[in-house]
Structure formats: C-alpha cells, structure tokens
Specification:
The protein has about 200 residues and is an all-alpha fold. It has ten helices and no strands.
C-alpha cells in the first residue's frame, strides 16, 4: 500500500509539473490573460477538468512548490549555526530554496517575466512578499519576540526579500548566465553596509 500511495503521489506531482510547464510556455508566447485553461489542458493533452483537479485557477499555478519552499525556509532558519549572524543565515536559507529539486532557473526567469507583464500577478507577488516577510521574521526572532525585535526582524526580512528578487531579476535581464545564487550573494554586502555613498 505504501509503495502504491507513493507512486500515486509521484504521478500527481508529475502531472502538476507538466501542466505548469505547458502553461508557462503559453504564458510566455501569448500572455497570461490571453491564455485560457482550455489552452493549457489542450497543450498538456488532458481535459480541462484534469487541470481543475490540481489547480483552482491559473493564478494557483504560481503557488506550485510553495509548501516545500516554506518548509525549507523554516527549517534553515531554525538551524542557526554558532555565531551565525542574521544575514548569513538568510543567505543560507535563500540558497537552500534555490537548490530545491523542483526549482528550474530557466522556468523561474520566464515566471518573473510573465509576472512583470501581468498587473494581476504583480499584485499577487506583493501579497506573497508580505507573507514571506512574516515567515522570515518569525524564523529569525520567534513569534513571542518583543515589538522592537519583531520590527527589526521584519525590516531586515523585507530588505532581504527585495534584494533576493531584485538580484534574480537582474540575473534574468542579463540572460540568466551562471548560477542565480551568485547574483543574490553578490548583492548581500548592501544589506550589511547600507546604500549610503561616502566621499
């Protein structure tokens, strides 16, 4: 029974990934709003009802893998090493997320381009960034932290998330050359030193 259950789950995950891949190609070619669920189902050679079995809406496609990413983020933040500062810990968490098996840098680049060209998805991305900010802040200082501690943690989380997405965006704009985490890591010193130019 265990093997059969595991096989079913793997098949479900494979179907979800295939639907996502076909949808992303269509979004890139036609645009998000212009692509219908029927288009996606036809490209994947399945019935529209199969799509709805896995995703309630087109927008839900962009939540694929979110639970695993959240768990990776929480687990890494909970594994602080002796003497490890917050920024080093955050970098390690971002690196762990980018190394997840389902993360495809090329697909991530297309996703970012689709989001930037679709107002409704840009609004959703803001909500996602705020959710991630709370998750990271709680991972850094815990839910019972003082108001001052939580404020500092949320400000750092907000800055780190902005750095992460901006670094990935620049990596996409530069043609996705090299390891995307290198672009993130290269931006990290700005979190430590700030943006003030002296002299």
């Amino acid at each position: 029974m265990g093997q059969e259950s595991g096989l079913r789950e793997r098949k479900k995950e494979q179907t979800k990934r295939e639907l996502f891949a076909h949808a992303l190609r269509l979004f890139e070619a036609k645009g998000f709003d212009e692509t219908t669920i029927e288009d996606i189902a036809a490209a994947a050679n399945v019935a529209p009802r199969t799509f709805f079995r896995y995703f309630a809406t087109k927008e839900k496609l962009f939540s694929l893998g979110q639970e695993e990413e959240d768990e990776t983020l929480r687990a890494t933040l909970a594994s602080r090493r002796p003497g490890e500062d917050d920024i080093s810990l955050l970098l390690r968490a971002f690196h762990a997320m980018l190394k997840l098996e389902h993360i495809d840098p090329k697909q991530s680049g297309v996703m970012m381009a689709v989001v930037l060209n679709t107002p409704s998805l840009r609004a959703r991305t803001l909500e996602e960034m705020l959710r991630m900010e709370r998750l990271i802040a709680e991972g850094l200082v815990g839910r019972k932290a003082s108001r001052a501690e939580m404020l500092r943690a949320r400000m750092l989380a907000s800055a780190a998330i902005s750095m992460f997405f901006t670094a990935l965006l620049v990596w996409v704009e530069d043609g996705q050359k090299g390891d995307p985490f290198e672009a993130v890591e290269a931006s990290a010193p700005l979190l430590r030193t700030g943006f003030v130019r002296r002299g």
